[in-house]
Design a protein that fits this description.
By secondary structure, this protein is mostly helical. The protein has helices at 2-14, 20-44, 48-51, 54-78, 83-94, 98-109, 114-140, 147-159, 162-176, 182-208, 219-243, 251-261, 269-274, 279-304. Helix 6 (98-109) packs across helix 12 (251-261) and helix 7 (114-140) runs antiparallel to helix 8 (147-159). The radius of gyration is 19 Å and the shape is globular.
Length: 306
């Protein structure tokens, strides 16, 4: 299904049904109108007390930040890429597609804890990883502004982010225990359901505009970092948390953390990168990860599952 939707996007641009610029508009739809309801639904539908697993959150945060930092240093110091390119290469290595790929895999492998693991990953990704990436990207294109003025600008832009607004509202609803009326819940459901399909179509449409010369070396470390280094770093994070007495609630939940880290990069990665001129590199990396993840996910499942 994933490759069919990517293929539809690719064909739609190649056949002239949509242009490269149209893919940008569809990307804006995902970021501003489809993804926020998905995040809101994932967080608001479960009591926070049920998903407040410190060991899990700490391990995923440790692994993701470690890979992000090492990926950025590699890109800047060894590859010599620009700050913005390095930021999004690092994001590509450290942010999993928990919702569109990871959750279905967990439903088959570990159905009892699939929803809990998804909600926990959403918290790390949307409270830490996405805001961190956006803040650093804004800082990199700040054209020389420094100090409080730049900090205020970054905070203001992040506060207006539909993704973070949806996360805050989801937490508020979860804490209140309120049930949304159907008049609100149904549109949220419809918009959330559209995000996966449109994101994959945008990836395919963006790939259609890539010349063959785009298949260059800097993409391969991003793919390797995500599919291999990220799950290893999360496994190391689980060991660290267990050593300090903050292990996960169950062995199944620990396995889920590693499995989700082995997923390809999140579907909105090319869309977020597109806003900062890194969309084509991100789309190519996403496509390559998605293809190769068939093998790496199978290997991960064989290793971590009993």
């Amino acid at each position: 299904m994933i490759f069919i939707l990517i293929g539809i996007g690719y064909a739609s641009v190649r056949l002239g049904l949509f242009s490269d610029a149209d893919m940008g508009l569809l990307g804006k739809f995902v970021v501003n109108l489809a993804l926020p309801p998905l995040i809101f639904r994932a967080v608001s539908s479960r009591p926070l007390a049920e998903i407040a697993d410190t060991g899990y959150l700490g391990a995923v945060l440790f692994g993701s930040l470690t890979v992000f930092g090492l990926g950025y240093l590699w890109s800047r110091r060894i590859s010599g890429a620009s700050p913005q390119a390095s930021i999004f290469r690092a994001m590509g290595m450290s942010c999993s597609n928990s919702g569109f790929v990871g959750y279905p895999v967990l439903l088959m492998a570990l159905p009892e804890i699939a929803e809990t693991a998804l909600a926990l990953n959403m918290i790390v990704e949307n409270i830490v990883m996405i805001p961190l990436t956006l803040a650093l990207a804004e800082l990199a294109r700040s054209d020389g502004r420094k100090g409080l003025r730049l900090a205020a600008k970054i905070v203001w832009r992040l506060m207006r982010s539909p993704i973070l607004i949806a996360l805050a509202l989801g937490i508020a609803v979860s804490l209140s225990g309120a049930t949304l009326p159907a008049l609100i819940a149904r549109p949220v459901e419809l918009l959330a359901s559209s995000s996966a399909a449109v994101s994959l179509v945008v990836i395919g449409g963006t790939l259609a505009a890539l010349p063959l010369s785009s298949l260059r070396a800097p993409v391969w470390p991003v793919v390797t970092g995500k599919l291999i280094a990220h799950p290893l770093a999360v496994a190391a994070g689980l060991a660290v948390m267990a050593t300090i007495g903050l292990g996960t609630a169950s062995a199944e939940l620990a396995s889920a953390a590693i499995i989700l880290a082995a997923m390809p990069v999140m579907g909105i990665y090319p869309i977020l990168a597109q806003r900062f001129g890194q969309g084509r590199m991100a789309a190519l990396a996403t496509f390559m990860m998605t293809v190769l993840s068939f093998f790496t996910i199978s290997a991960t499942l064989a290793i971590v599952l009993p």
